[in-house]
Amino acid sequence: MTPAPSSTDSKGMTAAPAHTAPMLRRMRNYWIATAMLYLATMGLLAAQVGAGYTPRGPALLLSVVAACGTLAFYALIHFSARLKIAPDMLAALQSLFAIGCIIAGYAIAGPLRASLLSMLVVAIAFCTFAMHPRRALLLAGAALAGMAGIMWYLQAIDPQGHPPAVEAMSFGYLAAALLATTLLASEMTKLRRRMKVSKQELLAALDTIRTLATVDELTSLANRRHMNELLGAEERRSAPATSCVALLDLDLFKQVNDQYGHAVGDAVLRGFAGAAHGALREHDTLARWGGEEFLLLLPDATPQAARQVLERIVTRVHALQIDGMTPARRISFSAGLAERRDGEPFTDAISRADKALYRAKAAGRDRIEVA
Ligand SMILES: Nc1nc2c(ncn2[C@@H]2O[C@H](COP(=O)(O)OP(=O)(O)OP(=O)(O)O)[C@@H](O)[C@H]2O)c(=O)[nH]1
């Protein structure tokens, strides 16, 4: 039998799964396991025939039916997507076929028939893992009904060979084993589902943590921690290349807060981040370094190229219009730009950029100073 992988939503509902490549591979793997089980059973059946416990004709017929059915199911798995057979349905059909074979085996097994009951338990355990618990329960019911039918038939036509009391007690054992297997396996299924949901929740939490660890909440730019990681990675980069860093600081931002309120101040920070981000080259990174201060990393950039990027930012920031601020109030920033010297740690380059920024502020703001 081929377990049908299925997806479970947040409410625990099981959706019909699509025929994905890994799922087909899994179905084929289960098919191989099932085919080996059939092969082993046929070998045992042949041994029973050899020992004279089982009649040759019915045993041969059952073996042929089992082999043809197994091959037919391989083809059905292969073409299941094209034939639009849901994996769950395929698993149910395979289970029914296996149950049918086992019941027929029981009918012809003679004194060894009780051994076939254990195979039925295995088949039902497979079903419970493979499909929705309700469907597995139905199949277990069908298996029990089928066994009850064949046992009744056998004791009716051959009470000597199949004493009614023995058949009834065997049925009792079978019913108890199937019930226990179904309950245990459905508990396992519930456990697996819970683990799957927990795994999804953990992955979502990990995603949130990763975002919190790298992104500044207000501006959605890289945060200081992430920028430090990027600077470290850039320092470790083997290719000798010229990189630049720039510190950007909004001008007279305290006045914005005081005059328009903190919420407008926040909107200015977001507006600045969006405008600046749009002016960057593909591999540049702008991070919120602190309050209204930003650090720009420009890998593989000469000071001239870095300056061009900063000037693009200036143009965009000057054009910013923030809701709640008088249109005449222009947003501006000052910047200190420094080239990273060969092999120098970024902290040194940033420190020079900071001094250049200080000079830009001292010189009247709204300007770029190169270290
Ligand atoms: N709205 C808002 N304000 C912030 C945030 N972080 C820092 N600030 C404010 O930014 C202001 C920075 O003020 P200052 O350091 O005096 O600098 P400035 O007014 O920009 O003056 P210069 O840098 O000299 O041009 C302070 O009033 C901080 O409260 C924030 O997340 N949101």
From TrEMBL:
Domain GGDEF: residue ranges: 241-371
GO CC annotation, single: plasma membrane
Listed InterPro entries: Diguanylate_Cyclase, GGDEF_dom, Nucleotide_cyclase, Rev_trsase/Diguanyl_cyclase
Keywords carried by this UniProt record: Membrane, Transmembrane, Transmembrane helix
Gene3D superfamilies the record matches: 3.30.70.270
Entry keyword annotation includes Iron: no
One GO process term, biological-process aspect: cell adhesion involved in single-species biofilm formation
MF (Gene Ontology): diguanylate cyclase activity
Enzyme Commission code(s) on record: 2.7.7.65
UniProt protein name: diguanylate cyclase
Classification lineage: Bacteria, Pseudomonadati, Pseudomonadota, Betaproteobacteria, Burkholderiales
